[in-house]
Automatic annotation (TrEMBL):
Belongs to the STK19 family. One of its GO terms (biological process) is positive regulation of Ras protein signal transduction. Residues 32-46 have a biased composition (Low complexity). It comes from Bipolaris victoriae (strain FI3) (Victoria blight of oats agent). It holds the Pfam family Stk19. It comes from the Eukaryota. The lineage of its organism: Eukaryota, Fungi, Dikarya, Ascomycota, Pezizomycotina. This is Serine-threonine protein kinase 19. Residues 1-56 are annotated as: Disordered.
Length: 324
């Protein structure tokens, strides 16, 4: 007797298997070869539109440039973050931040537009057409250390600054707006008009001679140049703290924010209830004391357009930033 045929094994009760519906009808189940099978792919949510939900155009989210004036407005309105809701900024610092933001001119560098666009050539072509149509105005910043270079301004925003200025007479405002909307028209200002415009910052001259040629300018451009230049220098300093000048974008944002915990964080709320240390207050960080709450994404885009840094895919932790 074989060892595989024991009384216990032979005495088992076996039940017939239940036939499937296809087998009962005499049909065969269709099988597909491994070469023809395609893995099921999960549907990813579509990227949000540039202007539907108020998100700024950003090269960090691969958004395409749709319209130059609308993009300029969106970039300008998303330069800074909103003030924190919880009491972390002093009243003096809050007023200083709001006044500094209000005094900044509506200037967007050409490098920033190139960074968020799919094609720099198409951007330059559209800007050229809008300048001839009187919608945009080019502003050239003289070459200096940390200069932002050339940029554009919406004529509507420039006109709003002129009309809101109380130190310019009404007739001079009308003459200035006419010269602003007509790029090819000569500047016919009297000596008194030139003194008023020079004192308010809407006109600039190379020399103090009465016959020196003058050009239209925006007031408080020095504040803008210093703020952007210091922000770019600080971003490069954070990147160069690593050995290879490379850092994931999430880590760079954390260092830019100074280790401040975002509002709505569950762990931060629990620590707040228990009375424990919740992290550094925003009012003690350089982002709010020196840069008035500037967003790190905005600074990265400015640096990418200037050729100072570049973005790359890490493959594991999202996008990274590298010093060029």
């Amino acid at each position: 007797m074989s060892l595989h045929a024991t009384p216990a094994l032979s005495s088992r009760i076996t039940k017939p298997r239940r036939k499937s519906g296809l087998a009962a009808l005499g049909l065969k189940r269709k099988t597909s070869s491994p070469s023809t099978t395609t893995p099921k792919q999960l549907s990813l949510p579509s990227e949000p539109s540039t202007y539907d939900d108020g998100q700024p155009p950003s090269l960090l989210t691969n958004l395409n440039l749709c319209d130059i004036p609308q993009t300029i407005t969106s970039i300008h309105t998303h330069t800074f973050s909103a003030l924190p809701n919880y009491p972390s900024l002093s009243s003096i610092l809050t007023s200083r931040i709001l006044n500094h933001r209000r005094r900044l001119p509506p200037f967007i560098s050409l490098a920033h537009l190139h960074a968020v666009s799919a094609s720099a050539t198409s951007v330059d072509r559209e800007i050229f057409a809008l300048v001839n149509a009187g919608v945009l105005r080019r502003v050239v910043v003289p070459n200096r250390v940390g200069s932002v270079g050339e940029g554009v301004v919406l004529v509507e925003e420039w006109r709003r600054l002129v009309e809101e200025n109380g130190g310019i007479p009404a007739d001079l405002k009308e003459k200035y707006v006419t010269s602003l909307t007509s790029p090819l028209s000569p500047l016919n200002f009297t000596s008194k008009d030139r003194e008023i415009l020079l004192s308010t910052g809407f006109l600039t001259c190379n020399t103090t001679a009465p016959s020196a040629p003058c050009t239209l300018s925006l007031p408080n451009m020095g504040l803008y140049i210093k703020l952007v230049s210091d922000a770019k220098a600080h971003l490069l300093k954070l990147l160069k703290q690593n050995a290879h000048g490379t850092m994931p974008l999430c880590d760079l944002a954390e260092r830019w924010n100074g280790g401040v915990v975002d509002e709505g964080d569950v762990r931060a709320e629990r620590k707040k209830v228990r009375g424990e240390f919740q992290g550094v207050l925003p009012g003690r960080t350089k982002r709010w004391k020196q840069f008035c709450g500037m967003r790190v994404e905005w600074v990265v885009e400015e640096c990418v357009g200037a050729g100072l840094v570049e973005l790359f895919e890490t493959g594991s932790v999202g996008r990274g930033v590298r010093v060029v």
